[in-house]
Specification:
heterodimer; A: alpha+beta; Folate-binding fold; two-stranded antiparallel sheet; B: alpha/beta; FAD/NAD(P)-binding domain; 2 domains; eight-stranded mixed β-sheet; 28% helix
């Protein structure tokens, strides 16, 4: 599997470290709703197909990125920076 | 037909033309009292204990492919009971006890080989951890023995005992009753025994959705039509997220691929199951002579029943660190199975928020060895509607309550368990 780092270009998966599901947004620090926090920490959509996930380019630029990858074929469709992904999630949440 | 020496001799004299299929190829009926989704070891074991020990009426097992074509046929066949947290300890030990009489019970040889397992320790700290685990096991009546380097060397002379070994072996925690079993035979044996009790085993029947009345499940939609059900049990580890998703549930589970490997056949050289302590690597030698081994998950969400190469390199590196001669042995095959990885590394056998829908999943690395106990306890849950005393901790609620059973202490990063 190869991942196109937005800063370094296409690199082998060896250079990256997995950071997990990027399809959920951490509740605001001031939020004290136990159900919401435990859903954020423990529950996953776990899709068979397209999955958005964080990776860190540990053996490269060390940036955190968000990869849209197919969990059946490992095809990578889109890569953006983690910051961009968080902005997207915040925009979705505020709608 | 009972399998016995007498029947074997009788069939031999008749040119082996009288053998019957081990189970019927059942046609789906319109309604069952209990439907179990998933025809792997767990689903079939559940059906068997349900039909044998509980009075629940008509039972069917639905399988999308063929029996034992998922993780039952893709593991490294190790059985053991060396867990130390909560219900894990007694649950896996109950499984071990069921394994010990399983061949007689099913009248099917599951080839249980209690060759003993050495879990190696490579530092004083690991010896302390092994001692603690061993003490917990012994306090629960499970056999465990802390052995020193010399005992390990006598039992396993082909490990790296040189002074310059990268990870010197200090000793091991040994469980003598642990070992291996023939994985396919477990699925076939349970299927044949369940069929004999009248369970309908329906293959090539993929579940595509549920029929719901309010919050209650009343049946399943399948590739072979709609089938009504009083209760539905999920035993589809690997695909639990997907099948639960069809009922609108989100679970504390991610699907990850775990690879296993087998080498060419070599002469007997490894008499026990060995777990490496300085990396994640476990190995045993099959009856055919192949070295069967595995290691970590590939490390990112996957439903692909095949693995990638970086992990292969990682596992083989651990293997060669433990047994340098392994580098001269040719690898024959490697394959992947999709694991339900839970947020704490321990399983779930529990009711779901959907009435009539019950979940058996989240087996992580522990699925194969758990097969008999899992079937036993899930059958109890499906029949009684309440968790078996051995699986009180295996709930869905434990996560939100901060009551996880995290043997490795990794937290909610399932790819690291």
């Amino acid at each position: 599997m190869r991942i196109h780092c937005p800063f370094c270009g296409e690199r082998d998966e060896h250079e990256f470290s997995y950071g997990g599901d990027a399809m959920r947004l951490r509740p605001d620090e001031s939020n004290t709703d136990q159900t919401r926090w435990s859903a954020y920490v423990f529950l996953r959509d776990n899709p068979r197909g397209w999955h958005q996930e964080y990776w860190q380019h540990v053996h490269g630029c060390r940036a955190w990125i968000c990869v849209t990858r197919n969990t059946m074929s490992h095809e990578v469709r889109r890569v953006c920076s983690a910051q961009e992904r968080v902005k997207e999630l915040r925009a979705e949440a505020s709608q | 037909m009972r399998y016995s020496l007498w029947n074997l001799a009788r069939q031999a004299l008749r040119g082996h033309r009288g053998w019957q299929p081990a189970w019927r190829d059942a046609e789906p009926q319109r309604h069952y009292d209990v439907i179990i989704i998933g025809g792997g070891g767990h689903g079939l074991a559940t059906a068997y204990y349900l039909a044998r020990d509980h009075n629940v009426g008509r039972i069917a097992v639905l399988e999308k492919g063929w029996l034992g074509g998922g993780n039952t046929g893709r593991n490294t066949t190790i059985v053991r009971s060396n867990y130390m947290l909560g219900d894990n300890t007694d649950f896996y030990e109950w499984g071990m006890k069921l394994w010990e009489s399983l061949s007689q019970d099913l009248n099917f040889n599951v080839m249980l080989s209690q060759r003993g397992q050495f879990n190696l320790a490579h530092s004083d700290a690991q010896m302390d951890a092994a001692r603690r685990r061993g003490n917990i096991m012994r306090a629960h009546g499970i056999d465990a023995e802390l052995v020193d380097r010399q005992v390990v060397q006598e039992a396993l002379p082909h490990l790296d005992f040189r002074d310059e070994a990268r990870f010197p072996i200090y000793g091991a925690l040994y469980q003598g009753r642990a070992g291996t079993a023939r994985h396919d035979a477990v699925a076939w044996g349970y299927a044949r025994a369940a069929d004999a009790y009248g369970v309908d085993i329906i293959q090539n029947c993929e579940v595509t959705g549920y029929t719901l009345e309010g919050d209650r499940v009343t049946g399943v939609e399948t590739s072979r039509g709609q089938i009504g059900a009083g209760r539905v049990g999920l035993a589809v580890a690997g695909n639990t997220g997907r099948l639960a998703g069809m009922a609108g549930l989100r679970l504390p589970i991610e699907s990850h691929v775990l690879q296993a490997f087998v080498s060419e056949s070599v002469k007997p050289c490894l008499d026990h199951v060995v777990g490496f302590g300085a990396g994640h690597f476990y190995i045993s030698q099959s009856d055919k002579g192949g070295l069967v081994f595995g290691g970590d998950l590939d490390g990112y969400n996957s439903y692909a029943q095949r693995g990638n190469l970086p992990l292969l390199e990682d596992v083989l590196t651990s293997g060669v660190a433990l047994m340098p001669w392994l580098s001269r042995v040719r690898l024959l095959r490697h394959w992947g199975g999709v694991m339900d990885m839970t947020m704490d590394g321990s399983p779930i056998i529990a009711p779901t928020p959907v009435e009539g829908l019950y979940l058996n999943g989240g087996w992580c690395y522990g699925g194969f060895k758990a097969t008999p106990a899992s079937g036993w306890c899930f059958a109890h849950l499906l029949a009684e509607g309440e968790s078996h005393p051995l699986t009180q901790d295996f709930t869905l609620e434990r996560f939100g309550l901060g009551d996880q059973l995290d043997e490795k202490g990794m937290g909610p990063s399932p790819w690291a368990h």
